[in-house]
Amino acid sequence: MESHSKNTEEALSLARSSGAGVAGVADLSLIRGLPTFGGVLLNHYRYAISIGVPLPNMAVEGITIEDPGILYAHAYHSANAMIDSITLKLSGWIIGNGYSALVIPASLRVDLLNNLGHASHKAFACAAGVGWIGRNGLLVNPVYGPRLRLGTVLTDMPLKPGKPLKNQCGSCRLCVESCPSGALKYSEFETYPSTREEIFDHQKCAARLDKFKHMFAQRTYQSAYAAPICGICIKVCPIGRSRPRT
Q1: Cα 22 to Cα 19: distance, rounded to the nearest angstrom
Q2: What is the pTM assigned to this prediction?
Q3: Strand-pair category, 139-140 with 132-133
């Protein structure tokens, strides 16, 4: 177990020194039934290293119902690029120590119809104890709230996993009531909702996200930042709006 702790300390230290605001380790036995796509097979690995890069608060505060804003779009793109850099560095370190590693891209949809990536970063982060699944269906960290972008590295390196956090949203319904597309549904659950559909209508959300992606794409001076973003449910969450100084 000493090697597990040492490996974990070194891996998380590397992630944080490379720019991750939060990082943790998930025991994949907790989420063996998690759906995966694009050829990713969880049974090849024992653990997942979950990292989160915080989004600038002022960029999030600039989001409006009519326009997420170019500063939020830039932060979204930049955070994804940073995550992919950190997870690639982590995987290289793991492989250099004689173990297997697979990077799950920060933001890459492989099932466009159902708006799904290779696997749920939120599920890995929740299993790692990085945060809990909120009423908005996003990972909510105790410090940053949902104002994070997430990345994952799967590995067979011996690590010491964290423990999942129960939902701490209480009776708050701000995200559900503020969603412009009406995609969120209030539901009581401790750790995970039984299905995504229990709390979230992905088709309603996707229609709004794609609308803004096309809006940015049509603005030639902003087309490089075209992305399926909205951010209202992130902005209204009270957790993470003010962060303690260190």
Answers
A1: 9
A2: 0.92
A3: antiparallel
